[in-house]
Amino acid sequence: MVENELRVLIVDDEAPARRRLRELLDDCMGALPLAVVGEAQHGREALDLLQTAPAELVLTDIHMPDMDGIELARHLLKLAHPPVVIFTTAFHEHAVQAFEVNAVDYLVKPVRVQRLLSALQKVPRLKPVTADQLSHLPASARRFLSVTERSRVVLVPIEDVVYLKAELKYITIRTKDREFLLEESLTRLEHEFGARFIRVHRNCLVAREHVRGFERRVGNDGDAHWEVLLHGVAETLAVSRRQQFIVRDIGRESISGAAA
Amino acid sequence: MLPDLRNLGTILRILLAVNGAALAAAFAREQHWDAVVGEWFALTSFVEPHLLAELALLALLAPWLSRQPYRVGVAIVLIVTVIVGIAVNQFFDRFLPGQSGSLPRHLAFALGTTVLLLVYFDLRRRALSPAIAEARLQALQARIRPHFLFNSINAVLSLVRSDPRRAETALEDLADLFRVLMRDNRELTLLEDEVLLCQQYLDLEKLRLGERLLVDWNVKSMPRDALVPPLVLQPLVENAVYHGIEPSSEPGTVSINVFLSRGEVHAILRNPLRENGRRHQSGNRMALDNVRERLALHFDAEASLDSRPTKDGYEVHIRMPYRTVRPELAADARDAGTRPAGQSRNNAHRSRTANGPRGLAGVPQTEVAGG
Questions:
Q1: Could you tell me which of B103, B113, B116, B118 has the C-alpha nearest to residue B22?
Q2: Whole-model pTM above 0.80?
Q3: What's the gap in Å between the CA of B271 and the closest CA on chain A?
Q4: Is there a domain that residue A141 lies in?
Q5: Most buried of A169, B168, B169, B345, CB within 10 angstroms?
């Protein structure tokens, strides 16, 4: 193994595009010591690969099934040593504009070998993209939330999330089977996932599809309030006084849903 | 230029206009409501036989009429009107004596309505075609997604070193596709050519997507000689791949059925619907609206495009009349300087020669039907 060689991971859902990048990287080897650590078909596979074979550079396509390139870059930030990410794109006017504005590195496909080489030579001086830069790119909502556990990045599919509850520094992600701790802002999550979650309390978002119903309860202080009943989870969540209107809204939705 | 006398939209317009005119005439003559209805019935009892007989006769004559200069065409339509009018009048005289009414009045009404309708259709033609309809068709010219071009070129580049022969075929397909995309696509083309184009397009997509893209062709019984708007299927196939195949890493099938049924050409496209498809919905609607509008410009009410979600995907159904001659275009080419003469007839020929080299390259033409 050559000292200081640049380890590269290729991510693209199209086999020919991966093969082409590999050829071009081979062409660059004379000018720069590098090694391709692997190829992945989408973001999720890339993340798996990187946990066993770390790389300094990830060359990733943007539009891919299962997990797109921008979401991949967000999860990569959870790694102990996040790699540099350079996006490759065929033609996406708006995306390219957003990259320029936010100083995110990208290559346009078909990639020229000289262009690739100069990008590779810059890598040691580059810092990983920041979450802030990524948040300005035109991306759809993530499909996974990612948490770090014992220095590994664990993905939680968004459809498994029953509720998100802010507690002190962290957010608790509750799935049917267990809990995870996440370091993000509840307001941002609410904004990102829109209609998927409803806010039942200042510190709590519940997945709409996991709401089973509501129950009126009288607390120890004698005041009555609503509790959310959930599918797959026995515990219940209190609805705050300010959010009480959701009980009526959701009730109406399920009635009209049943009628339809 | 005379309207297309076999077009359902034209016939519908004539039926409505003549009955409307009869009602207006009844109104003009009578004040009382009951009397108006009575008068209208009396009028329609001989207007209707005349109208239907004349429409049938004109529909028979339509192909021949469309080849005549406009003035001759108008004169023949007026002569037909008079002859049918006299015939209907004679018929009434013989079998329903006393019901026939006065022949001059009948003929005056019939000729008046015919002239008004001819003026209407002429104005409508001027409003719609050639200038405006052609401008609209040009604006509606199907455009391929740019990312397809760049991804395809990238895929071809990946083959250049490892599989130069496949790279050659791919570049030839790409050239054929863009030749059709960039040519003047305002005139009807052969269904066979449109299907071949889709095949070439899908071959290119297969290069990129590999096993993820499965195609189920069912075109063995299609009427190969039917004339269809160019690029009526390709944008829909492209849509099916973009929304149904690309968003998933699992293999999916695009199925294409083209067949003839009761004198109409049907094309049914199906693709799986992937969970992530929602975000492209607006793009999907645009392509469908584009094809729908072009169908309307070419075939009026005789063609339709329906789309609906099915239990495991999405389905688009196109219905078009089965035409094998270009009546309007043949006349159009002669029409004062709208377009160089003969261009329409060259069109089919040109696209056939464009496909020639593919046959030579060892890909049998029958693959279109079977593959």
A1: B113
A2: no
A3: 16
A4: no
A5: B169
> Looking at this protein, which amino acid is placed at residue B176?
D
pLDDT in tens, B111-167: 888 888 888 888 877 766 666 666 677 667 667 777 888 989 999 999 999 999 999
Contact of A26 with chain B, judged by CB distance below 8 Å, is answered with no
pLDDT in tens, B322-356: 988 765 544 444 444 444 434 444 444 444 333 33
DSSP string, B338-362: SS-TTHHHHHHHHHHHHHHHHHHTT
**Residue numbers of the domain that contains A70:** 6-135
Same domain, residue pair A71 and A117 = yes
A-proximal residues of B, 259-288, CB under 8 Å: 274, 276, 279
Q: Is the same domain home to A118 and A151?
A: no
B146, B149, B207: residue with CB nearest A16: B207
* Confidence check: pLDDT of B88 > 90: no
Q: Within a domain: residue A224?
A: yes
Residue B204: name the closest of B271, B255, B150, B269 by CA: B150
Nearest to B217 by CA among B172, B162, B255: B255
Domain ranges of chain B: 8-128, 134-370
Peptide bond into B63 cis (omega under 30): no
At the fourth CATH level, the homologous superfamily of domain B134-370 is: Histidine kinase-like ATPase, C-terminal domain (3.30.565.10)
pLDDT at A38: 95
> Which CATH number goes with the domain that contains A196?
2.40.50.1020
Q: Do A65 and B249 touch (CB under 8 A)?
A: yes
Q: Which one of B154, B203, B278 would you mutate to disrupt binding with A, by most A Cβ within 10 Å of its Cβ? A: B154
Q: Is A42 on the interface with B (CB under 8 A)?
A: yes
Q: Do A128 and A153 fall into the same domain?
A: no
* Residue A218, in any domain of the structure: yes
Check if the interface score ipTM surpasses 0.85: no
Nearest chain B residue (CA) to A111: B154
